[in-house]
Amino acid sequence: MIIFLKFRNKKIKVNAREVSFFGKIIGLMFSRREKAKNLLFKFSKSVNTPIHSWFVFYPFLAIWLDKKNKIIEYKKVKPFSFSIKPRREFKKLIEIPINKRNAKVVKTLDGKTD
After folding, report:
1. Domain ranges, residue 38
2. pTM for this model (two decimals)
3. DSSP assignment of 1-58, as one string?
4. What is the average per-residue pLDDT within 5-33?
């Protein structure tokens, strides 16, 4: 699924796979950095649920969105972090592995690709 993010008067195109209920539990855990897909988590109502990166052996970018795909907050998440959440409620979350395939998106948001 192609999703367009709104960030600083720019539109960023991201290809992400929408996850099921079970996928929301697993996320990027146990995946390989270069083969991992971008994941889209949709919620039926606004939430402020924390995420973790246990058993994710590489950094990834977490992007929290409102219902109009406007970026509320984003953060580079390091491996084995316990509890990460934005300051505000969100409707969608995208997890983007920091790898060669996502270098352009990561650089646009984070300013660096490492």
Report:
1. 2-110
2. 0.92
3. -EEEEEETTEEEEEE-EEP-HHHHHHTTTT--TTTPPPEEEEEEEEE---B--TT--S
4. 93
